[in-house]
Design goal:
- This protein is mainly alpha-helical and 119 residues long.
- It has one domain.
- 79% of the residues lie in helices and 0% in strands.
- The protein has 5 helices and no strands.
- The protein has helices at 2-21, 24-27, 34-56, 62-85, 94-116.
- The mean pLDDT is 96.
């Protein structure tokens, strides 16, 4: 579970770096623009990093954090597929697509691994 969590977390962080380039806060109409985007990332990355610590230390909450992280990775990819289908032309560079694919694959791997493990 630890490796899948780390892969998902790194994919999500890479995507958020890319999202800053594409001004993702405009796509989502984030209140406060870039400032709101930064606050969102402060909270989201903080929670996911705390979750990684729970996984590494094999804490009872590790499973719940792993489900959240895996679902976040898959949802991130899914949301951007919907944006692309709606005609948005952002995130179409090869590494942007690769980062989103990594979010999907790592997130799915994390969810499958986590849900197969006994609590």
């Amino acid at each position: 579970m630890e490796r899948w969590y780390l892969a998902t977390l790194l994919s999500l962080i890479l995507h958020q770096i890319d999202a800053a380039f594409w001004h993702e806060w405009d796509m989502f109409r984030v209140p406060g623009g870039v400032q709101g985007f930064l606050v969102f990332n402060l909270v989201a990355v903080g929670v996911l990093l705390h979750g990684y610590r729970q996984v590494v230390l094999a804490k009872p909450s590790a499973r719940a954090y792993a489900v959240v992280c895996g679902a976040t990775g898959m949802a991130t990819a899914g949301i951007h597929v919907l944006f692309a289908a709606a005609g948005h032309e952002k995130f179409h560079l090869p590494l942007s697509i690769a980062a989103l694919a990594a979010c999907l694959l790592a997130g799915a791997g994390l969810l499958l691994t986590t849900l197969r493990r006994r609590p």
